[in-house]
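Entry:
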Amino acid sequence: MVFIVLLAFLSGLTTAEDKLPDVLRADYEGTVGSNRIQMTLLVQHGKLIPPSHYFYQKDRTDIPLSGTTGTTLTLIDPSGGTFSLEFKESASGRDHQLSFEENVGLVGTWTGNDGHSYPVALRALFAGPAPAQPADCHCPE
């Protein structure tokens, strides 16, 4: 009997492969103006959490992002640049509100702290539960 209880307890323990509670990961690729970018967002309770970031493919340097999500997304980088984005629906359209799990991408603008704006078009690559530590995370062990 003790063995069965111990086995049931041990089967409930988590491993590094488990998912973070209530954290969604969404990956995108596309453009800001004519520059190609990739973006990874980790969202918990409507807010971006580290290591959310984007990078320009020409230099591949991670640029951290903070911000909030909902029907629109407001993402801010350390330079003061702001992404103002909306979910893009498929050509077939939907009768319900779009979410990270139900969209084909993000569209909107990136505005620099100098006031210049550029169009943003991102294609959804993945959306689902976030792993306990993303493979591309530069987190301390």
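The chain has one helix and ten strands.
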